[in-house]
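Subject: for your reference before the review

Hello V.,

The reviewers asked for a structural picture of the protein, and I figured it would be easier to keep everything in one thread rather than splitting it across files. Below is the amino acid sequence we used in the manuscript, unchanged from the supplementary table.
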Amino acid sequence: MEIEKIRKDLKAKKNEDTVIRYAKKISRSTQQEDSPEAVLTLAQKLWGGGKEEERFLAIHLVASIDRYLDATHWKQFREWLTEAESELLRDGVSSRIFGSLVMEDRSWVRVLCHWAQAEDPLERRAAVMAVFPRTRQMSDHEAALSVLESLLGESHEAVQGSVIRLIEECLDINRGEMVEFLGKWRSRTDPVILKTILERLSQEDQERIHQF
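And here is what came back from the structure prediction:
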């Protein structure tokens, strides 16, 4: 599909859901006519255009061929993460692209643990967003805990929100182990994070956490 036609069609898409559906349609058509690699090439061209809506479409084009991604793509999308100029795009690259790679290969969690210790809060948030799909879709709360250990003391507001959501996801998967984890690291946990989580727990779970 010609990129100029895509750009023209994209202007008529009014919300994120319609763009995501459009990405899937383009991906199916391109793969029927060519290959997954052609979808990736098209995504690279759209990302290179620099426009927010085109980059959003590029992310979801890549997500549509996630089963074809491997370690050779990590460096390229690491550059996308650096180039993304909005939280929407950064979260998209982190969760839809890196999240897919982490689901396919758990060893990438080690890299996310390094990101979680980075000075840049955007990189720390990316670590959380990238482990989230594996946590939710594969119930791998232990992968999340590996990332969370470095982030319980997080004070940056944008990162705190993602940390709290990941903790809540882990509580849904294994409440007992998560309560024990929070109790163990309670003294290191940022007061805002701890207060928010405690307010959402039962009195019994709150008491267990304070026993540590």
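For the response letter, the relevant points are probably these. DSSP finds 13 helices and no strands in the chain. The two ends are 60 Å apart (CA to CA).

Happy to draft the paragraph if you're swamped.

O.
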